[in-house]
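Problem 12. The chain below contains 334 residues. Write out its predicted structure in token notation.
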Amino acid sequence: MRIATYNVEWFANLFDDDDSLVLDESWSSRRDVTKSQQAQAVATGLKQVDADAVLIVEAPDQNSKRSSVAALEGFAAHFGLRITDAIIGFSNDTQQELALLYDPAVLTARHDPQASLDAPRFDQEFAIDLDVDERSDMVRFSKPPLELSLTTKAGFVLRLIGVHLKSKAPHGARNRDEVMRISIANRRKQLAQAIWLRRRIVQHLKADEPLIVLGDLNDGPGLDEYENLFGRSSVEIVMGEQGVDCLTDPHARQALGQRLAARPTTSRFYLRHEGRYLQALLDYIMVSQELAARDPKWCIWHPFDDHSCWADASLREALLTASDHFPVSLDIEL
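Solution.
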């Protein structure tokens, strides 16, 4: 089985208010890319990855007028994808949903949110002291993680948690001091969300449930100047210490273990004020130890770093056109 995660930049803007694809030459929300070009590029990427299930990060929005599931299933039908069915969990108001596109001939998926005494449901609030003042702060997810129970046609059951953690930019800051203050406060909130997520992960691991946590953690070792202030990144919190109750992702472990060496990357952003691109490791597929023992294979579909992606010119161009993130896939026997 192949499971993947793919952050499609502003996927929602490729659909109208009737959830129909807009395939014209108007500009998408990607720099110098039309809606028609981006839609075709996303479809090409999904066909080439050919996963049985793909977590779509930044999926089309869900609200009283628009349906993320309808948009995604319409997209799949238009381009003839075999991942024809879509499912979401708790919607949000950011126009960036978390959704799973999957092949119903291979597996079934059910939204199955959990709760415990120390980790409430992800659409609720989490009490934690963020600033060590002996008073609890209430934290919410702007994008509640997607909790699914998956069952393969062979009857294997596993848990899947799709995530998009995000530390907000310092909007409203009027000077450097305010930028720092707001940035630190926002990072505290992101780390609190990682702790909340970690508690849910431990809940599943203690119950010996096979688990995959995947998506965009928007954080990683050495990503910004505030990491040293807090000691750990969100990635390290979510994965846990090596040993009991830890998750495995070789790209994350490589980055954590080789801070001065070249690191794998899953995203590429254009810095207009500097006239260059920044690459970062933001997208992960983390698996529990029971799944790690099945000899899984990970792949970052990076158009410059992966030889097969580079050698296929049409795929290379599609990956660069579709999004500022690249797909990550996991092959595993289930």
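Discussion. The mean pLDDT is 90. Students who got a different answer should revisit the alignment rule from Section 12.3.
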